[in-house]
Design goal:
10 helices; Rossmann fold; 2 domains; globular; alpha/beta
């Protein structure tokens, strides 16, 4: 198998060739047809997540490491004890694979498992032509879904889907604010349009991304850089019932929390990092809810794929490039030049 491997933090990926692994009991081998690039891949490549200021959360990986957790492909072979999906089946690969033994896994929250087997971090991921999946339960058949959609469903789609489910069922006339129109935010916009009758308001500092959001159905797109942007929005609308922060920075959280009405909800999804100043008295006085949301469960991934198969959700905005162009794709993503998602094809 060929792969684009990380051999040191912050250094260009290297083209490596290794023997294609064979699946053991409970495992599956998948030939990769598409793999998406995620901002969290950038953080892992850099070796840390920002905790605000100079504080950093280091990333622990074993080199060489193959990044990429948005994976779709075709089943090649199955290990002992695995009955399906049959070889040749097109599948999305749920990457957030747990140990299967801890309390989180037993309650169905594999994505919250501590001793995990996450593809693209703990195990080799999608920037390759094959991937060994340590638990065949992670294979989700995608039928005739358009190329790339299944891959993006496993992170950008799943992350947005799980976050939006935490909003509940708001009254139809109340706006929902989505902050950050990157790959996950645009996926969130498409899903919100399918899940809610509410007006969906997009927020981003990048004019191109605001334009993309409006073209994809946002009721309006706001530039948060203006000093009175939040106040103007609340004055016009009475405030949002909920806001989802797909960036996770101090400034984006400030906009999200400032945009909601009393009794509203803020869901923080993004991993950009930083600090937020939260006067605790505002929590009871505004009766607000702050929730964190990390990717999603295997059951939610299956639920999302079933929804995507109905055709009710707009196809994600994506740009396809060859796997050999992984390094330039990383640089474009780091520089903010990507609108939507880059999908790499081996």
């Amino acid at each position: 198998m060929r792969c684009q491997a990380m051999t040191a933090f912050g250094q260009p990926l290297e083209d490596l060739e290794r023997e294609t692994p064979q699946p053991g009991p409970g495992e599956a081998l998948v030939k990769i047809t598409r793999a998406g690039l995620c901002h969290s891949d950038l953080h892992i490549h850099e070796g840390y997540f920002s905790l605000g200021g100079e504080a950093k959360q280091p990333v622990a990986v074993q080199f060489p490491c193959v990044l990429g957790h948005e994976i779709e492909g075709e089943v090649v072979s199955l290990g002992a004890g695995v009955s399906g999906p049959a070889p040749g089946t097109r599948v999305a690969v749920f990457p957030w694979i747990g140990c299967g033994q801890c309390a989180a896994c037993k309650r169905g929250d594999q994505h919250l498992c501590g001793p995990n087997r996450v593809l693209g971090v703990a195990r080799w991921g999608g920037l390759a032509d094959h991937v060994l999946v340590p638990d065949a339960e992670a294979l989700i058949p995608i039928g005739d879904m358009a190329p790339g959609v299944g891959a993006l469903a496993m992170c950008s789609g799943l992350t947005a889907f799980s976050a939006l489910k935490k909003i509940g069922k708001p009254r139809a006339e109340e706006p929902i604010v989505l902050v950050g129109m990157g790959g996950v935010g645009l996926a969130g916009l498409a899903l919100a349009k399918a899940l809610f009758p509410n007006p969906i308001v997009a927020v981003d500092i990048d004019a191109a991304k605001r334009e993309a959001a409006v073209k994809r159905g946002a009721a309006e797109a706001i530039d948060p850089a203006g000093a009175d942007a939040v106040k103007d929005f609340v004055k016009r609308t009475g405030g949002a019932v909920a806001a989802v922060d797909f960036v996770g920075a101090g400034d984006t959280y400030a906009f999200a929390s400032g945009s909601i009405r009393r009794g509203g909800t803020v869901v923080v999804v993004g991993l950009f990092g930083g600090l937020a100043n939260i006067p605790l008295i505002t929590l009871p006085l505004r009766a607000m809810t702050i929730a964190g949301s990390f990717v999603g469960s295997l059951d939610e991934a299956r639920e999302l794929v079933a929804l995507l198969k109905t055709g009710k959700v707009a196809t994600p905005l994506m740009e396809e490039r060859p796997l050999s162009a992984a390094n330039s794709a990383f640089e474009d993503l780091r520089a903010g030049k990507v609108v939507g998602r880059v999908v790499l094809k081996p």
